[in-house]
Each structure stands twice: as C-alpha cells, then as structure tokens.
Specification:
Number of domains: 6
Number of helices: 37
Strand content: under 5%
Number of strands: 8
Radius of gyration: 37 Å
Structural class: mainly alpha
Mean pLDDT: 86
Low-confidence stretches: 1-48, 50-70, 166-176
Helix content: 40-55%
Largest sheet: 2 strands, antiparallel
Distance between the termini: 93 Å
Amino acid sequence: MFVPLLATVLAVLAHARADWIRLTTPCQQATIGELYMHVFGGPAMCRLNVIVIQIAWLAVSELVLFAGVESSGPDFRRDVVPILERACWKCHGQNEREAELDLRTGSAMRVGGEGGPAIVDGPAGGSLLLQRMIDGTMPPEDEPRLSLDEIQVIRLWLDAGAPTSSYAAADPSVTAPLVTDEDREYYAFRQLVRPRLPGVVQRERVRTAIDHFVLARLEEQHLGYSADADRQTLLRRACFDLLGLPPSSGDGDGFVKDSSPLAYQRLLDRLLASPHFGERWGRHWLDVAGYVDVYGSDENASSIRLPPGGWKYRDYVIQSFNRDKPFDRFLTEQIAGDELVDWRRMPELTEPTKDMLIATGFLRTAIDDTDQGVLNIPSNRYAVLFDQMEIFGSSVFGLTLQCARCHSHKYDPIPARDYYRLMANFIPAYNPGDWMTLKNRKIADVGLVQQQQMDAHNAQCDEQIKPLQARIDELHQAAQEEVLAERLQALPDDLQDDAREAFLTDKDKRDDAQKELVERAGEISDEEVEANLDEGERARIAELRGQIEQVDSTRQAYGWIYALFDTGPPPETRQLIRGQFERPGRPVQNGFLSVLCSSEGTALAAPTEPVGETSGRRRALAEWLTSREVPASGLVARVMVNRLWHHLFGRGIVATPGNLGRSGDPPTHPDLLDWLASESIDSDWRQKVLLRRMMTSTVYRQTSHAELATSSGTDPENNLLWKMRLKRLEAEVIRDRMLAASGKLDRTPGGPPVPLEVLDGGRTIVAKNDQPTPSSRSRRSIYLTSRRNYHVSMLGVFDIPAMTTNCTIRDRSTVVLQSLAMMNDEFSLAQADEVAHRIQAAANSVESDQPQDSTRLVKRAFQLVLNRAPSPDESRWATEFLRQQASNFVAANQPSEENADRALSAMCQMLFNTNEFLYVE
C-alpha cells in the first residue's frame, strides 16, 4: 500500500509550486494532511501516511530539486551569496544594515544584530536566518518571495555547518564601519571650511561677498541681477521681513526722504533694534521648536489645558532674538539650561538662571497626554520621547532622525545605534521607568529654598485663618438652621426627617429622592441665610472677614517655570529592536552621530562632570554641537543660516530647511551656504549680523517685477535669484497688518496667552470676554493662545500650521476660502470699518468746516492699508468707486447719513483683498 502512495506523492511533489515550501516547516507539518486531501481527496489518512508524505517531501527536496548541488553541500560563493545578494543585502548589506544586521559574511551572520545571531551551529532550524525565510517574515512583503529551491539551499548550507572558506576574502568587510569617510564628505556633513569668493564680470553690481556667489552662478548661465527695487518697495520689504509689521510713518518719511548713501543701512539698524524684531523672528523659531501654549494632543475644541508657566518659553525666545543672543548660547540653553548651574541649591533664582530653566521648554514641546492616568503607559511615554527626538533632529540637525528609530536610515548615514546613542543623552530627563508627569515638571520661579520658605509662611496664614473661618461658618450654620426649620414645617411630618437629611447632604451627592424633596421644599439660598442674621451677627462676620483679608494680604506668591530636568541617575539605554519598547536590544552608551564625528571612537561621549543633581549629558551634547573642532557645528550653522535665507528670500539655499540630508533638496549655492555658515560662526553666531549682511546685498535689493525673457527661459523657477521672489505674508502678519491699518493693534509685549473662544458653529475667534484689558483682543498674533489644531479660523485659512510635531516650512496655498474670509469674516469686516472711522476722524479734525474731499480720503486709505500713495489712475478709480458705492447703498434703502461711511469701509475692505496687501514684493 505504501509503495503506490509514495510513488504518487513523489510524482505530485516533483511538480509542486515553490510556495508550497511552507508545508515542510517544523511548525506546520500538520498541514501535510491537508496536502494529502488536495492530492487524493477524501479524509486524511492515518498518522503513518502523513509521516510517509513528509519523508517523501524531504526525499524529493534532496534527490530531485537539488540534484545539481554537490554532495558536500552548497558552495557559499556559488550557491548562497546570489540568494542573499538578491533577497537580503539591500537591507542588510554594505549600504544598509537594518537592525544592525550584516548578512554579507558568515562571521557577520554569527555576530548578528538586534535580534541576536542570524546563524548558529547545529541543525538548520535553530538559525534565525532560516526561520525568517520559512515563516515569510523576510524578505519583506514588498520584495519578491524566496523560492523552494532557494530556501532549501540555505537549509542544506546551514546543515553543513555554514562553511564560507571559499569566500574568506570577503570576511574583512565585517569590520567596515557603519559610517564611512565617503559618507562624511556629503556637503552637509563635512567639516566646515570657508570657501573663496568666486570671480565675477559684473563687479559694479556687487555690494557684499554674498553677491559674488549668486552672481557667479548667474553669469554661468549668461544672466545677471535685475534692477534695484524702488525705495518704497524696499522699505515695505524690510519692515515686513524684520518686524512683520507695515512701516510706520516715521520710518517711511525718514528713509524715503533720506538721500544719504547710508540711508538704507540706518533703516536696517532701526528695524533690528525694534522690540518687534524678536516677535517676528521668534515666531519662526517657535514653529521649528513645535511650540504651542496647550498641553497634550489638543483633540477637544472646547477643552484647553495650559501647562503652568509654559508661555514663558515663548517670551524667552522673543527676548533672545531682541538681545541678539549668540545662536550657540541660545541652543545650549535650550538643550541643557538646567545643567549649566546648580539651581536646586540656589537660595533664590537670578534672572539669568530663570532664563536658562525656561529655555529648556524647547524639550517639552512634544505631544504628551501622560498626565491622564489611563494614558500614562510605557508606549505613550516612549512616543513622547520619540516625538521630541524628531523635533530635535529637524530643528537642530536639519535631518529626519525618526527613520533610524527602527532601522538604519534609508538615505542618510545614521545607523540605528547612533539614534539610540543620541537618545541616551535625553533619557535621564525622559526616563520611561521614572516618568515625570505634568504636575511635577514645574519649578517655582523663586528657587527651591525660597519656595519652601514661602510655602511655610503661607501655611501659617492658613492656620491663622482656620479659626476665623470656623467662627463665620458657625454663625451661618445657626442662621441656616432657622431657615431650614421653617422649610421643614411646611412639609408633612413623615417627610421632615428625610428632608433634613437631604438638605444637609452636599448637592452633588444627593440621590434622586433627596433632590426631589429639596426641590419641593425649596433650596436655601445664601441670601436667605444672610437675611436671617441679626445686626450683631452681621457686624461680627464683617469683622472676621476683615481679619481674614488682612492675613491673606501677607501671603507670598510665586510663579512657575515649565522646564526639563533630570529625574534621577541615568538609567541604562538599550537599542530597541524595530523601535519597539517591548523588545530591548543591546545597551548603548550616550554619544553623538558618527557621521558628524571625525571617527567612530569620537562618537561616544566622554564621562561628564555633573552639576548638582544632573548627569551633564545634555550639556556635553550642546558643547559637541557648537564646537568648531567637529563637523557637527558646521551642520548646525548651515541649518541656521539656511533658515535665515529661507525667510528673507522665500526659499532656502536648500529648499527643504528641515532636511539637509540626501532625501532633501540639494543646495542651489553650496559654496554660499558654507560661506554664510562660516561667517555665522566667525561673527560669534549672531543672527542680526547675518541678517544685515544678507539684506544689504544686491541680491536682496532686487526688484521682484523683472520679466527678463532670457532669465525666465533659462531659470523659470528663479532658483538662481535673478530677481527677488514675491512672498505671501504669513497668517499672523496678515492679521497684524489689518490691526495696524485700523489703528487697533495692541503692541503690549509678553505675558500669558490671549484666550480664544470656540463658537457653536465650530469657528474659533479671540474670546470676547475674560480678557485682561479691552484691547487684549487686538494684541499681536504671536500672543494669541497657540493650539495644535484649533487656531483662530481666520489664521487657519492662511496656512497657520497644525502642530503635530513641529513645522520647518509653512505651506503657502492659494484657495477660494482665503478670498471668502477676507470678504466675509467678522474680523475682516470690523477692521475695514475701523480703518474707515480712522480716515473720517482724521479728515474731520483737519477739515471740520469744509466738505470732505474724496480724493483725500482715498489717499489716506491707500497710505493706511497699502503704505503708499495711490497713482493718479488708482485715485480716479477709487474716487469713482466711492461715489458709485454710495449710490448703491441709496438704492438699497440704507440710511442716507451712513452711505458715505459704508462706501469708504467697502473700499478699505477691497484694499485688504488686493495681492499688494497679502504679498510683499
């Protein structure tokens, strides 16, 4: 019986498809019975028949499918390497080593990766390499599957002891570093060297060294600079770029009428010294840092949670830009401000120390919902840490680090090992095993010692108040008993005891029956109790309250700093297999990115000297980032100057400011990028110096209206900067410009965020109530409560970013909703009315006894809204518009005395809708 069965099975299996290989795995041998049913039909046979089929399968595997393999086993070079090269080396070879696994040589496979050795001595089934091939885990689903023949070759090779003698020459590659010297020569990673200025032909157009680099590229394409912009355009451009506000009348008159060759430089000096400079450029950094005023994921429109003192980080950033704090110091304070001084033992915190602690708010910007008990779990803790690493990577390195969390980076030379080395610098403060929730992340802004003294004093105040308040409660209780007795007498006798108990139960703890009894008898109000007091009792209560107020007046108050600091000794950091916290791999030492170090050995951090109760790891990281001796400072400087260029010119030298890696755009002017980075470091990292040099260049001062046929044909995207780019104003600047035009802009700096309000229809506006002052609704947009998802609707239309992590570059869309908002939004209409009132008020004060001249109204409207005088054609057109619009209101039966004002308001709103208002030339 068995012989025919065996012969039949051999015949069928000899022609089986390759993917039937899974039927032979040890864990799935039970499926052989299913195969038998497929071949023969009917119920599965006895266990003996199944065993026969298995034996037959193995026999076929050895005798039929691999007749070409030598009896000594597969040859590694001839038989095994081609399989691994096709199916494995893409992710586990020379260029990529996912999970730190190299499958190019036998010795490398025995070392293994995050999951352990890939091959081991003994039966083939014990090696992870074969297990992953058989269970289909590897290669990944998007790659071609291994055939039966290929898997059996690997099985036979492993059973033979995985010999690689014929491939011994390849073994030295095992020691090849994960990051090579060639990797370090990529423009973003190489050691920063100041390039020489290139020669140019059109030397008369050169104002600064910057012009050499840009003009040299233009001349290669037989191009040149466009003409300079006129003074009015240059004035508006400089004011919006540096302050985010339209030019004041003083700036306009002073610059336009100043014929001195130094007039433009003096204008820049005034603007750079303005307190509004920090508000403008601080907003750029807050985007990069991922700053919001709210805590958590912000998924509920009506629920806003504010971290205590979180807004102080925003003010710190603004003040740092105004003071032109060197960028290396600015960065160091944000990464390790708490490690620069022993703040825990200071009797009181000095202002510089407060600033350093506030600065660490930079590392508290990731979404974090772990203050909610059910969400304070390891997966969410690690998610916070991973998000903060992503923010840190894109803001400081200009790289996408998150890819290296699960495997070595696909594009950039960032091994997963380096990701976790870098993360180890933050683990002492972000320890998933000793997690610090929201209530413990605040520091009293007076210092721990003074805080304890103040808390002790306030506790004494509480003790003094307790007996005073108790006496007041006694007097009220007696009066309340009298009122209650009257209530109970009105009820039937059988309900009075239950009713008394109901009245004496707290409102939120009453059951339904008690609520019904109280409602039937009538709730006792505070006014009734007060009315039941006699004159002597009222006088006594007033005296007691006065004593309480006197004690309260001596209380000592302090504020809070929302900061990052170490929670205890550094825990061990392990490389997580596939980024999964449940699968910790090998331990790693804190360190840096190898590609930004001169060698593998220098990528490990040296032991640090703690300051107080800190590990000093983040301080060491900050020092490495800003040290001129290592390539890291070059990358940091390139990222910084590229952002400055991006905000001034509408596009960075690298168009992807958050990604200077290989998957980002290449630089259009790499030598200029390196020159600016070198200039930045040589200028003590001062950003105002760099901005001034960029803005005094010819390339910045060009007109944006040039239409050179040769230029547009050769460089239609204007990548070579043969003219200035037209830039759409950001959402906040559009709102602030409207408020400035209406004269309602409140320029008060700093402080807690301005509250917002979500209306029933879903629109978000600046809250109409609960504002500190009436003008608070009109403060600069940077001071409005910044949320992750629910922005002021007017700002959302103009691409204010949703802050899921951070924003390294804003979208600039052009959609119909923007026009609709400018025409119909309540805020837009209100500001147009205010501009009209402002114009009328000025006209009435000057021409109180003369009829109003429409031409003068038009001129004033253009000055306030567009910051320039109208052309003769514009003046005629606008005057006719006022006349026609007033007639339209008459035809619509509007009150005649309001027609002129309404027409003027409509014209102002129309000016708001012009491209000239929304863009800077």
